[in-house]
What does this fold into?
Amino acid sequence: MHDEATRTVDMSRLRRRGFALEWATLGWNVIGVAVLAAASFAAGSVALAGFALDSLIEIGASTVVIWELSGTGEHRQRFALKLIGGAFLALALYLLIQSGVALASGHHASPSPLGIGWTAVTAVLMFALAAGKSRTGKALGNPVLTAEGRVTFIDGLLAASVLLGVLLADLAGWWWADPLAGLVIVYYAIREAVGIFRHTS
It folds into this structure.
């Protein structure tokens, strides 16, 4: 009886941690959408515009997990996983089209100190949040939180690749590095989506 009570307390604590991680991610990305929209508009940066969209998708994914953590049931989990998988595919499709158009047209982005600063901080924060979600999701036995942790990890990868692309475009004059940074994440996003849909089929 004591062991069962202890487990219930532990699960409740882990669930609260999961909520806290998701709310932190949600809050950061809500601010990020506005910051990145302004930076991408000012610089004409495909990579920053793509990252702004990724922030929107991360907002959606966090909302899905908060909704899922509020309830129980395998059906609810499977549906939530499919929503996250769809978000991955939407991100990959957008980046593929946007980056392809920019490369084909020879689009040159302007320098963006705001974009550089925001993506640098975001990369560090997203990797930390992803690690927390992975540990908490595994401890809870919650595949939705674990999957969304991978979304957050990819958000960190995208931030790092966007940062590199913007820096190379600004400092080295490699205009193609900006849209190329948008393509880096396409492979990872598609791979994660395929894995999720296989798991839920």
